[in-house]
Amino acid sequence: MAKFVYRAKDWSGKLLKGQLDMVSKKEVVDSIKSSGLMPLSVELVKGNMLTEAMKRFKGKVNLKQVATFTRQLSTMMTAGLPLTDALALLKNQQDETSGLYEILDRSLEQVRGGMPFGKSLEPYQKVFGEAYVASISAGEEAGVLDEVLSKLAKTIEDQYEFQGKVKGAMIYPVIVVIAMIGVVILMMIFVIPKLMGLYADFGTAKMPAATLFLMSMSDFMIKTWFMIPILVIGGVAGYNVGMKNENFRLKKDKLTLKIPIAGVLSEKTILANTCRTLSMLLTAGITLVEALKITASVSGSEVFKQAYLEISEKVQKGFSVAVSFQNTAVFPIIVNQMISTGEETGKLDDVLMRVSDYFSKEAEESVKALTSAIEPLIMIVLGLGVGFLMIAVVMPIYNLTSSF
Questions:
Q1: Is residue 208 part of a domain?
Q2: pLDDT for 49-95, tens place per residue?
Q3: CB-CB neighbours of 243 under 10 Å
């Protein structure tokens, strides 16, 4: 939501001024006209950068909030509560500064005005996701919104639980790696130069190769330390620019999938999420071709996005789902076999959900394998680093004492 100030005239020519919280300038103009007024000017109210940043931070809606909201709305509608009453109750439970409060407030206003619930959520696809909004719209049209909400809640809860497990497993390795990098930078810039100053009188001829290398690296980092943040910022900026290019995304995702252990984890996570999404869309009554296109757009991988789009094109041309999946050379054999079974039995949505559960469990095992591999690797790197420092720092002292 953004705040707009407007000037308008009524039919008697009286000048009116006011403020409205809307998503866009067009909505403000439409709202003014619907009130029987003639808009003269509409301007966006801009706050200072800190205020705007705080608003964006407070207004951010996370996956847990979406899962809780969906579960509560599903429970209320299953109990027979009208949609408007359920939305009003849920809105009143939110903090007025939260993003979800603003969304529910706007959505409730539009639903009361006769707009379908799914349509009212379309401006917030970045919050809920394209698949979520499409499922809500399809459920409304079919008159099974309560059932769709129940399945959406289960899907999002499973997704949130899985993300929590992955994040929880990766916290320790990430913290250790960041700490290692920080310690190395601090030692090379502040600690090593002082130690090396003690050996200045030895002469480079008496220095071990490891000590000379350490001195060179420390000297290089002292002279170019300011380049570190520039390189980090430049790398992030370059990556963001590259992600706007389809070929860059495709090459990056192909490379990611080839990384040992981590690539397998990425593949299984994507398969679990996309199969779950496709199952949810089909259950909501969305056509297979449209469901495949939506799944492609929310897959999070250019490799799988192109695969799902290719499948949707083949299905649209009359090919069977099983044949379309087999010809992509992206999906594992088990996916192709399960898809074929689901198509033959007419329970493709149920089979896809089972496939999703299977890959979710496989991904959890991959997370355990990844953390199990990272922890000893970190210890080995730490050991090698400490050993190198000992040799580089202690060897000159040993050489000096042995010369007497």
A1: yes
A2: 444 444 444 457 888 899 899 999 999 988 888 999 999 999 888 88
A3: 12
| Sheet with strand 2-9: strands edge to edge | 15-22, 2-9, 38-44
Residues spanned by the domain of 283 = 176-404
Number of domains in the chain: 3
Number of Cβ within a 10 Å radius of residue 169: 17
In whole angstroms, give the CA distance from residue 381 to residue 21: 55
Regions of the chain with pLDDT less than 70: 1-2, 23, 46-59, 196-206, 399-404
* 74 & 203 share domain: no
Q: Is 339 found in the same domain as 211?
A: yes
pTM of the model: 0.69
The rounded distance, in Å, linking the Cα atoms of 202 and 397 is 10
Question: 91 near 105, Cβ under 8 Å?
Answer: yes
pLDDT in tens, 302-356: 999 999 999 999 999 888 888 888 878 888 888 888 988 988 888 888 898 899 8
22 strand-pairing partners: 2
Q: Helices in 93-144 by DSSP H: which ranges?
A: 99-112, 117-121, 125-128, 130-142
